[in-house]
Amino acid sequence: MTALPSLYISHGSPMTALQPGLTGERLAALAAALPRPQAIVMASAHWLSRRPQVGSAEQPQTIHDFGGFPAALYRLRYPAPGAPALAERVARLLDQAGLAATVDPGRGLDHGAWVPLRLLYPQADIPIVPISIQPELGPAHHHALGQALAPLRDEGVLVIGSGSITHNLHDLGAGYSDERQAPYVKPFIEWIEQRLDAGDIDALLDYRRRAPFAVRAHPTDEHLLPLFVARGAAGANARARRIDAGIDLGLLAMDIYRFD
Predict the structure, then answer these.
(1) pTM beyond 0.90, yes or no
(2) What's in the keyword line of the UniProt record (predicted)?
(3) What is the domain-level CATH number for residue 187?
(4) Fewer C-beta within 10 Å: the chain N or C terminus?
(5) DSSP string of 158-211, one letter each residue
(6) How confident is the model over 202-230, as pLDDT tens digits?
(7) 220 in Cβ contact with 208 (< 8 Å)
(8) Number of structural domains, the chain?
């Protein structure tokens, strides 16, 4: 079996589910180019915990973890099955890597998971195992978490990190738009692309000190941490391929990365 790549997806606003735009086109094309996975392990920026947790529900519920959106958004469901046996394997891999994990049989799929999954695999027929991120533990921890998941790629499992390549919601009222982009967005996404192309893991793990406008692009870094999960899962010599899905609202870069 050929190893699958790992992916990092910028999931954007929950409204992406109703207005997929360029992101929807890019994710549909990506799914068509990939071998069909037997299962998906997904680290979302919207499941936060102090220590790694793994969702083992047989039928994960669709979580509408947002407010103030149109009623149509709350009617959407993503009824993909879970994979309890795979969840136990994920927990064992993390334990073996020294990343003590617990299994949560009740965890569903938050919008960081189900919104992009609806665009990748709209039939909702691929089993999903969600995993949490640990915002207090930083990039190196998440890179190690991804490395622990790397063997799954040889078993037909697609490892996905879901976040946002830039994420500063404090700037939503600052007047940025498609015509007036926030000045920090392009320098930051270009730096990330250059460091990934160069395989400069040390710089990436230290991005908050080294990247231009890092703290402006990510006042808190939970939306970038899934990138390190995806990069870690790809292996030491992986090639990064950026898929440009535009910049939403002038400040949310929607970059997607495929790591082979």
Answers:
(1) yes
(2) Dioxygenase, Metal-binding, Oxidoreductase, Zinc
(3) 3.40.830.10
(4) N
(5) EEEEEE-SS--GGGGGTT--SSS--TTHHHHHHHHHHHHHHT-HHHHHTHHHHS
(6) 999 999 999 999 999 999 999 999 999 99
(7) no
(8) 1
